[in-house]
Amino acid sequence: MNDDQLLRYSRQIMLPQIDVAGQQKLLDSTVLVMGLGGLGSPVAMYLAAAGVGHLILADFDQVDMSNLQRQIIHRESNIGESKVASAKQTLHALNSSIKVSTLSEKLSAQALEDSLQGVDCVVDGTDNFAARFAINAACVRSQTPLVSGAAIRFEGQVSVFSNIPGSPCYQCLYSDTNEELEQTCSENGVLAPVVGIIGSIQATEVLKLLTETGRSLQSRLLLLDAYTMEWRSIKLKQDPACAICKI
Ligand SMILES: [Zn+2]
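^ thats the input. predicted complex w/ zinc ion below
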């Protein structure tokens, strides 16, 4: 680590649980951020600021005026641009020393699996079950840790799936989910900082995973009701009938 890096990350290196060794792990890590919307925005910005060495950004959408209320990585000048290009611009302005790669195509199951090569952790910031289930399946197959988050209205949830054999996966939560349960921010609305709260927790869990410190949200689902500002945490178990993680 050079002097610039020691200064830039000094407030993090100061933490005995991180130290120079932990910061070096972050600099050597690769994180795939799926979705550069309300959740992916704070996740990618905090991971870039904290010095995660390589961020891979995946999103096939373009920046729209209605995104700006909560997707804080994008600017008015980015409207009409691809979200990954817009996000990359902000991240490089924030920290020019990290590597940022982009995937702007809709990923097939195979492409998704290929993109996990060399990835230490995946963050799910997508907004629909089809994408979340596909990301989960690829993470389970490659045993890549997944930090999952969702937010709608005044509500949010976040969890960590280590995807080591015997542990619950994201699909275990939704063994009986059908399409009718699908709700999106575009149809139901969301209060701007609620995605920021959940995304910030996702970023925190990623940094803990990468530096192997603290107690993670593994096998726990943290639920936020921002309307009453109450938190709840429920234990997760592997679904014995799960078609994805049960071998
Ligand atoms: Zn499962």
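The pocket of zinc ion is lined by residues 168-169, 171-172, 238-239, 242, 244-245 (CB under 6 Å).
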